[in-house]
Amino acid sequence: MFEHLLNGFGVALQPMNLLIALVGCLVGTLIGVLPGLGPTATLAMLIPLVFSMPPATAMILLTSVYYGSMYGGSTTSILVNIPGESASVITCKDGNQMARQGRAGPALVIAAVGSFIAGTFAVLVLTLVGAPVAGYALNFGPPEFFALMVFGLCTVASLTGSDIVKSVVTTCLGLMIATVGIDLVSGAPRFTFGNPFLQDGIDFVVVAIGMFAFTEVVVTAMEVRAGTRAEVIKAERIWLTWEEFKYSLASIGRGTVFGFIVGMLPGAGATLSTFIAYNLEKRICKNPERLGTGDIRGVANPEAANNAASGASLVPLLTLGIPGGGATAVMLGALMMLDITPGPLLFEKHGAMVWALIASMYVGNTLLLILNWPLVNVFARVMSVPAKYLMPIVLVISTIGVWSLSYSSVDLLLAAGAGLLGYYLRRNKYPIEPLILGLILGGRMEQAYRQALIISKGSNLIFFTKPISLTLLIGAVLFLFLPALLARAKQFQAARAVSAGAA
Amino acid sequence: MKGSTRARLEGLAILLVAGGYLWEAHNVPDLFQMPGVPGPTTFPYLLGIIFALTGLWLLISPADLLARRRQPAAKERAEKPPAPAASLSARLAAQWHFYAMWIVIVGYLALMPSVGFPVATFVLLAVFTFLLGEKRWWLVGSLALVVTVVIHLGFGKGLNVRLPLGVFESLLK
Questions:
Q1: In B, which residues are within 8 Å of A396 by CB distance?
Q2: Which residues from A are below 8 Å from B134, CB to CB?
Q3: Nearest beta carbon to residue A188 from set B40, B105, B110
Q4: What pTM value is reported for the model?
Q5: Looking at beta carbons, which residues of chain A come within 8 Å of B50?
Q6: How many domains is chain A built from?
Q7: Same domain for B9 and B35?
Q8: Which of B23, B50, B85 is the last residue of a domain?
Q9: Using CB atoms within 10 A of its CB, is residue A7 exposed (0-12), middle (13-18) or buried (19+)?
């Protein structure tokens, strides 16, 4: 394993790849800093650019952008009280309080240090468990893979939305869009309505850019018109005392471990991990009443959790081919476009690429720490670029991203349709991530389903007779319905308590 | 619009889409279907049925019905008379920026291949920046021009993306 990792470092430290990692970290941090442009939209926009790159270089760029955006998101949370991306929402609580108390510097430094420790831990665990998990998954046949994908979709649907039915709607919609085009097994054209441009299917990049980038442009534009921009606080002392570091070290450790465990679940993602880690921290730590009032542990813990979860979400992506959320789903799509199928065979077939990617994550983490520490005020200044100039440029670059896929006007119209639909879904609390994940996994899921049915001679019982697939399907059902059932039970208990009190 | 009415309308729309999807799946020619082997319609049928069921659920909204059955009288008493809905023209006037933005985006995506990237992008940047509150026409115009040229050179020449020249193409000929 360490020999592979050393070879990976050999690739990752090549001057070109090092430069790509640096650019990716910078771009990612800038995107994380800018409210309104999330990592998922940015990764989708970058995909057409990575076509011409070698797979390892392409993945180094995408992961460094992803990691960078996670780092950058904390800066806006602390200095402006606006989370750069959803995983930094919790950081606002204590981070902005610290900034208002004149301690923006230590808050930013602990965010960078906590992220570095957690990110490095996550990559270390990925190094150790990646290949063994992939080796175990080699035992999976079509029924197990189908059940695994159902499990992944159900967890994403359950954890990204507040209403299960709405999550199932968008998941189905994504899977249905994936069936458009020529069926690869029989050659039958499906849902093409005689349009030759639809025979190749609908590219997920078109839908992802439409649903994430275009809608984010409009949402941010409306916020700009509403005039909801806050004051940027400047960090004076960009340093951390030994006492402050010692005080937050245990919180970083707990955030890292909880973040990693939650981040491993498909669909949980970085955002959920920060909420869970912070709530657990409140129950476990000494003097929990200080959290929320500008306590440095309130920054260290969620920042560690969010970066540990980002690294952890690559474990199911690389070993099982199941992404953890929107950003990793886009990465999965990018890998598939580069003719690399993530899953158990990835470590065997494309070992050099995987180990280079893992090595580049160590490098990326170090680069991010070096960049974030001294340059934090420079990044913060980027926020003063008015969104009214920035958003139209994002729109044009997103359009080029769609156009460059196949130079087809149909793609542009589909992106427009996806944008309008995405905006409606977003406004009405339909989660978009399950749709994108369904669209990406749809083809493989149908293939596994049909192969399983061929093995069983058409009987759907095969999914319930194999222990692994049965366990995964039970897990999927539990993930889908348990949160709603628990919420109902809570409501029922509360209502009973009220009626008992009245009596 | 009330949440439950919206959910019902969404349910109806989903049912219609599911119906259309299942109908299209049904229309896949039989010659692609081999006996004893799951064909190109097996998975779409499964998806269409699940999608239709979710639509049906939203249309019926059983949770809403149950809640009404539990407390019909109390709820009716508590319900205030609905506020008079704003007219369509009033809503359009209040949110014209929003509609204008989407019209500009969709127009840009639909017309860019024929009008050409330079002209379409210049117009998009100028109009969008104006819609976002920048009223100084000289700044809007010069910014749109500079950004169009930089992006065109960066992507067209730097990254070899074939951007349509549209009207400029015929002018050059």
A1: 121, 124-125, 147, 151
A2: 388-389
A3: B40
A4: 0.77
A5: 168, 172
A6: 1
A7: yes
A8: B85
A9: middle
Alpha helices in A179-268 (DSSP H): 204-208, 215-226, 242-264
Cβ contact, residue pair B129, A409, below 8 Å: no
ipTM of the complex: 0.85
Q: Which residues of A touch B6 (CB under 8 A)?
A: 428
- Residue A182's H or E segment, with its range, is strand A181-182
Tell me which of B63, B85, B107 is where a domain ends: B85
Q: Tokens 């070290």 — which residue? A: A249
The tokens describing B160, both together, are 């070899």
Closest partner residue to A416 (CB to CB) among B32, B55, B110 is B110
Q: Please answer yes or no on whether A168 and B54 come within 8 Å at the CB atom.
A: yes
Burial class (CB in 10 A: 0-12, 13-18, 19+), A106: buried
| Residue of A308, A328, A309, A327 lying closest to A318 (CA atoms) | A328
Which domain covers residue B41, as residue numbers? 3-85
pLDDT in tens, A185-236: 778 888 888 888 888 888 888 888 888 888 878 887 887 777 655 555 565 6
Interface test with B, best of A169, A215, A397 (most B CBs within 10 A): A169
pLDDT digits (tens, 9 = 90+) for A304-351: 888 888 888 888 888 877 776 677 788 888 888 778 877 777 777 787
| Same domain assignment for residues B15 and B34 | yes
Residue A168 at interface with chain B, using a CB cutoff of 8 Å: yes
- Residues A244-255: pLDDT tens digits? 888 888 889 998
CB B118 within 8 A of CB B165: yes
